Amino acid sequence: MRNYSFEKKWQKLLTPEIVSYLTIIHEYKGEQRLIADKHADILKNLINIAKIQSTESSNKIEGIFTSEPRLKKIVMDKTRPKDRNEREIAGYRDVLNIIHENNEFIPITPNFILQLHRNLYRYEGNLGGVYKSADNIIQETDSEGNSHVRFTPVAAWETPEALNELCNEYNKALNDSKLDPLLLMPMFVLDFLCIHPFKDGNGRMSRLLTLLLLYKSDYVVGKYISIEKQIENTKEDYYDALQASSIKWHENKNDYEPFVKYMLSMVVAAYKDFMERTKLVEEKTISKPDRIEETIKNHLGRITKAEILELVPGVSQTTVQRTLTELVKSGKIIKDGDGRYTKYHWNWEAED
Length: 352
Hints:
By secondary structure, the protein is mainly α. The protein has 2 domains: 10-280, Fido-like domain (Fic-like fold), CATH 1.10.3290.10; 284-351, Orthogonal Bundle (Arc Repressor Mutant, subunit A), CATH 1.10.10. Helix content is 57%, strand content 5%. It has a two-stranded antiparallel ribbon. The protein has a two-stranded antiparallel sheet with strand order 3-4. It is globular. The N and C termini lie far apart (70 Å).
């Protein structure tokens, strides 16, 4: 039987690299709180963007897609889902909203995890909110089309007790003042994925639980920056770290370090993204057009209007379009393409 206690496991993770990640995140946490308190109205745009990106990326990792216009309408609850993919996307949206708005009232217990899973599949009949009834395996397919077993999760009959033990040990570990909850988050998520308690939706649930656990320890970067997007952008590294940390998991001999390092690096990346996007907001003397101009000038490569809107919180689409037109006319930037595929880049030759 797997031992789910975190008591002795976390101490092995205090390597210089992991401690460095923890230190960086702690520093960013304080800075972010000050910025969020001062600019709550301006940052509303970041919240909406994060919800769209989180819903899109977490589902895309699992091969669940819809068109970009449809996705935005579903996330903003402005249309009804029309097929299975869209129903699952709508379910993810609902659970994401529950976590954003009610995280302090959601304890880490099997019953509440089952409720969140039920909501994930609320538009799919009775698929959600129940443990797997048959054993499952995690497979991968190589470049030649051959499939092989990557990991064998906990057996179906053991699953309820396993998840109960995991939640109990997590809540017990939180009372240890020496243990940083940032370390607990990826350890819990790894164990959850190794249990694989559901027939479907385990990956998406693990990412939703990541957000929830961060919220409950007062790390709220996921409210403004999509951690799911960070994971999607480094999907191969994610799977490599997950596999490395699950070796000998059933024998209680697995090494959490690869997955912990990976997940903490994603949190650091999210905080850095937040600081970068809000940097110009802090400069009160900079006008909105100047913030747009600086964003384009400092951006590597070409940039779209949608990306500018993401990077310059609190600026309307009308202001962005007007500024782009003026910058193109003045020769400071160059426009490439037309319509939705239009991109812009800084005209460095004009400065010579």
